[in-house]
Amino acid sequence: MRTGTGARRRTVAGAEPAHPVGVVRGGVPILVGANDMGWHTYDPDGHVIPAEDYAAGCDRLLAPLAEAGTALILIEPFLLPIRGLVEVGDVRVGEDERKEWRADLDPKIQVVRELARRYGAHLLAADGMFAELAATTGPEYWAADGVHPTPAGHAALAAAWLRLVA
User: Which Pfam families match (predicted)?
Assistant: First the structure.
């Protein structure tokens, strides 16, 4: 199953099983949650997705993969603490919105950790990793808008990935 930038958990969980599953070194990587966190800010029809609904959707995605014996690699969704106003298309996102996003994201990170334990999946603790990295360089170096990694952010994820599956 393939999704692109902007996919939300309900989109991924509802994907047709006939879609190809992207197996890479070490298993199937799954990173869902950042768009579930903030999508309602952009979409007039959007709404906050409770952690319980997020968990159920992720479980529907993971269960058949695990039953098939697929190795899973769960990547925590992350949000870096960017200061000031960030423009995303026509939408301006301020610190107050990002504080709401953080409050919404933290329980979802806990869901991902619990699902990793339940399914015996590798866990790439990306939120903590980026928080630690941002403490020395500033968050914009890793994700200019706090969500989408820069080339340095992608390199950090790749390095963490390789350490995890090596």
Answer: Lipase_GDSL_2
